[in-house]
């Protein structure tokens, strides 16, 4: 007695899904290991340089996540194509654990949202005060420039005033804010060119800067607004991923059930 048409469909759907899952895990592992082995990997890709510690931590995270994805995809592929109830059971269990962890992570993110916001603001303040403009932290500088240009913001929580006591200000006493705080001629230009750099810096001196040449909103608030405005998309993506995992678990259980029935019949 062979598998029913529906069970065969579930089997091959499960196999195809997990083949992509397995390949994605292999690619992630490869990238993570490459970054760990080759310290100059980022420069080969012309990505902004960052600290060795951050590169190592990011690489280990990529390898770890990639390994989990790789093993999960392998179990799903082999379990489906070999019609192995044991592998399918392990696959369903691993995927269920991942799904539960994702749900817990989502709940924790909601519960500790304010703490996350405070930590984000502290991290942003530290970068503004100590790292922006430092040649040894070029990655931080480029990240801030990108953020200020794309979100049309300036500084962290306090707006332009955040730059007043920063290390960058000490190196640039004739300026009040970086050029990326200003309204730019072209935000996509490699070198930022303010519409009027003089008026921009004059506006930054005001206690309540509001000027057509300067972005006055702090980037932490702008980032929060961006997240809120895109929350529906983020929730939709998370829900979609969760649904895919649930369908994969259901397909695995259906295939396993059909195999079990087949063996009992035999």
TrEMBL record:
Transmembrane intervals: 12-37, 57-81, 88-112, 232-254
Predominant location category: membrane
Whether Ribosomal protein counts among this entry's keywords is no
What GO cellular-component annotations does this UniProt entry give? plasma membrane
- Coiled-coil region(s): none
Any matching Pfam family: Tetraspanin
Q: Where in the cell is it found?
A: Membrane
Q: State the PROSITE patterns in the record.
A: TM4_1
Q: Does the keyword Transmembrane helix apply?
A: yes
Supply the alphabetized keyword list: Membrane, Transmembrane, Transmembrane helix
The record describes its membrane topology as: Multi-pass membrane protein
Give the family this protein belongs to, as stated in its UniProt record. Belongs to the tetraspanin (TM4SF) family.
- Write down what this protein is called: Tetraspanin
